[in-house]
Design brief:
- The structure is a single chain.
- With 231 residues, this protein is α+β, with helices and mostly antiparallel strands.
- Helices cover 16% and strands 43% of the residues.
- It is built from 3 helices and 16 strands.
- A 6-stranded antiparallel beta sheet has the order 3-2-1-4-5-6, with no helix packed on it. Strands 7-8-9-12-14-15 form a 6-stranded mixed beta sheet, with helices on both faces. A 4-stranded mixed beta sheet has the order 10-11-13-16.
- Helix 2 runs parallel beside helix 3.
- The protein is globular.
- The relative contact order is 0.15.
Length: 231
């Protein structure tokens, strides 16, 4: 996934109210950018860090800037949670996500039952695969970890994937790790033990857990390789 326009460098002043970040641009201007990431962003919100913003051409937007990247521990981290679904869909189409590359049709934001949606439904000639995509930015001692805050919604999605798997469908959760300094993936049990328990249950039930590390640069974000899971 290439960014549609050149990103704008700056320095993070603060992230606040979950959805807002104050950034000082290289020329000295102070702007407020939209933050799409609703998690705690642990380790990815240090004031003084280098960041990159995108700017929308939509004149009706209240905040034209969107926070895209932050430099954390010497590596670029993608914090925009709007990108992982697109990254996975692109990877399915071009064969970069090998485990899911046999489906010619991709549907997004699929209603599976009243009140529950999953990110993708991949359709082939003889089967459907339901996919939930999670954005991972947290590095704990060299391991990519999810979630970075208690996620009741994430646990709900795991339960739904288990239900669909038991009904005979293929089901998967793809963890898009938007940083390239992690050697493996694990659930963040110290942050949300309930999510960790349900992830283990889902894997035992046959739900596929696919953690993919991404190469993140100010020009593009690409899924690069699957990581091992430590449970």
């Amino acid at each position: 996934m290439r960014f549609s326009s050149k990103l704008i460098p700056g320095t993070l002043i603060q992230r606040y109210k979950r959805f807002l970040a104050d950034v000082r641009l290289a020329g000295g201007e102070l702007v407020t950018a939209h933050c799409t990431n609703t998690g705690s962003m642990m380790g990815c919100k240090e004031p003084g860090s280098r960041v990159y913003l995108s700017r929308s051409d939509n004149l009706n937007r209240k905040l034209p800037y969107t926070w895209e990247l932050i430099e954390a521990n010497g590596t670029w981290v993608g914090i925009n949670t709007m990108h992982p679904n697109r990254l996975v869909a692109e990877a399915v189409k071009n064969g970069a996500l090998r485990e899911l590359d046999t489906y010619p049709t991709i549907r997004r934001e699929v209603l599976t039952r009243q009140g529950t949606r999953l990110d993708l439904c991949l359709e082939g000639t003889d089967c459907h695969c339901y996919v939930e995509v999670k954005n991972v930015t947290l590095n704990l001692d060299g391991a990519a970890a999810f979630p970075d805050a208690v996620s009741e919604r994430g646990t709900k999605h795991l339960k739904e994937l288990i239900r669909l798997k038991r009904r005979g469908y293929r089901a998967a959760v793809v963890f898009v790790i938007q940083r390239d300094d992690c050697a493996m993936f694990r659930p963040a049990d110290e942050i949300d033990p309930e999510y960790g328990r349900w992830l283990r249950r889902a894997i035992r039930a046959g739900v596929e857990a696919l953690p993919y590390r991404a190469k993140v640069t100010p020009e593009e974000i690409l899924l690069s390789e699957r990581l091992g899971i430590r449970l």
